Please model this.
Amino acid sequence: MGTDNSLSTEGKPIDGTNGSVKDLEQMKTYTGEGKSPSGFGARHVQTLLLFFGLTVAYALRVNLSVAIVAMVDRHAVNKDFEDFNWNEETKSIILSSFFWGYVVTQIPAGQMAQRFGPKILLLFSIGICSMLAVLTPFCAHAGDAKAVIGLRIVQGLSQGFIFPSTHTMLSRWAPASERGRLGTLSYAGAQFGTVIMLAVSGFLASSSMGWPSIFYISGAAGILWSVAWFFYGSNSPAEYRGIAPEEREFIESSFGPQDHSRRIVTPWIAIITSAPMIALTIAHMAHNWGFWTLLTEMPTYMKEVLELDIKKNALLSSLPYLVMWILSFVFSALSDFLINRQYLSRVVSRKLFNTIGLWIPMAALLGLAFVPKGGSDLAIVLLTLAVGINSATYLGFQVNHIDLAPNHAGTMMGITNCAANIMSIIAPLIVGQVITDATDPIQWRWVFYIAAGVYFSGNLIFIIFGQADIQSWNQPESPIPRTISNANETQSARNANNTTSNVNHSD
Model:
């Protein structure tokens, strides 16, 4: 997150081969450097809706992480509600089942968002997931673990459309000069939803409404968002009735001239065989392994090893994600500052922030492995460090798709997110095999060792093979393949009167 650059729109090439810059003022219009309309506009409405949409999406994704602690031990919270005899292996399967469906829809989601529009996909994605959340207690009662697993798979299938659709929305709504701010605000909803859900789940589970209320309330929030999105969400400025003409002009002109007669073809072979793309994919996979290991297993670790009650467990489980949410804005501003002031090249910045986001958490996990049973204060500090600093990867691998090929960034995100979320499936399953006694800190030590090792190797490969230059296959239709840096492309555009190199980036 945090780069003030733009994406391609509606699958059309944006390498600048279809327009020219007559003078500096025209260049500013094309690159989104024109004067921004003052006040709260339609683009801000869409950004806030995306923020709350991702808030709800992640609340629906992580609600089971805390709820399952109460679902398997009613004596820990409220004795009036049913509990289930699920062992650690069964719990791990349930927690990972969401991603079985999630990985399936990643790659086709971007193409569908282009064809049918992101509004309808987001509406059905969050709407269906929310209704299924409300049905979770009934499914658990009627069909036990198998029914919950099936429900979570379908929820994962529906949520697979969220990130490609959000990406498409931003490519149409966020002007280049505001893309870092609007993109950061939109995607910050993911951490905000995690914080809210983890923080309130413990109180809900121990209230008179019991653990089922976790699913009822998060599901109801998603349904309310879906209603608001139906009335106020819009695929593009051209479809938004209430937008001011000057705001629409400001947004659309920032994309530069578009040749609507040309449509690019995805170079699948070039993408999947590209060394920088492979390094990016591995870094994404490493991030997901550690992130989802901690997110799904932290409540159990806090209860069984740190011996915290579920109310305190939920609050402390949310703390690392609150820190992560705050630091995402800090790292975003710092990255922009370092690149814009030319203190760091783009590739050095990507590798630096990715290293901060993976190797500092690696060190924290190694320290966590030696925290003795009951040493809750030190463990909380290390867990907060491991998760919070991880937000630096948003300025590392997560924006690197756009660096390599802005025309294919959506497809590339689908590919890497699909591969990365396979790790989200495997990681909890590995924990289920390693942990036979959840109260044994020695067994948890191996969980932290594995996550630290994955973090180390994934970032090392990214450091060695990662790049931040536009690849030649970004423009398969161009007669002369090119591989030039973003910085050089921008400078060339300012020096040439016959070519616009308008390379677009986003989150």
